[in-house]
């Protein structure tokens, strides 16, 4: 699933027979899940992640939000929203709440 998400490939593409044939040509042991299986898996993982973040962050009295951004060597710009909080041992913890690719128009405006 990670490969499809990171490559921006539609999950419906997994239903393509030629894609199945090309994967089977690489290894016959690979079993590709259906698009609905991938969608259900993603929704389940999302719900588990949200619950874990709520348990970790919302049990604290105060949370600070930060915005971070960086650019990879191939000029792919990413921005991220991070929640910072103190745990019960007074150690600073952070949780990434969201991230997204920054639009090229935005980058050109700032001369990147």
Tags for this model:
alpha+beta, elongated, 3 strands, 112 residues
Write the layout of secondary structure elements.
Elements: H1 2-6, H2 17-26, H3 35-57, E1 64-71, E2 77-86, E3 92-101, H4 104-109
Antiparallel strand pairs: 1-2, 2-3
Question: How would you describe this protein?
Answer:
- By secondary structure, the protein is α+β, with helices and mostly antiparallel strands.
- The protein is 39% helix and 25% strand.
- It is built from 4 helices and 3 strands; from the N terminus they run H-H-H-E-E-E-H.
- The chain has helices spanning 2-6, 17-26, 35-57, 104-109; strands at residues 64-71, 77-86, 92-101.
- A 3-stranded antiparallel beta sheet has the order 1-2-3, with no helix packed on it.
- The chain is elongated and about 55 Å long.
- The mean pLDDT is 76.
The fraction of residues assigned to DSSP E strands is 25-35%
What spatial order of strands do you see in the largest sheet? 1-2-3
Q: Which stretches of 5+ consecutive residues score pLDDT under 50?
A: none
Task: Please bin the fraction of helical residues.
Answer: 25-40%
**What is the N-to-C order of secondary-structure elements (H for helix, E for strand)?**
HHHEEEH
Radius of gyration: 19 Å
Describe the global form: elongated
Distance between the termini: 32 Å
Largest sheet: number of strands, sense, barrel closure: 3 strands, antiparallel
Total strand segments: 3
Tally of individual helices: 4
- Overall residue-averaged pLDDT value: 76
* Alpha-beta content class: alpha+beta
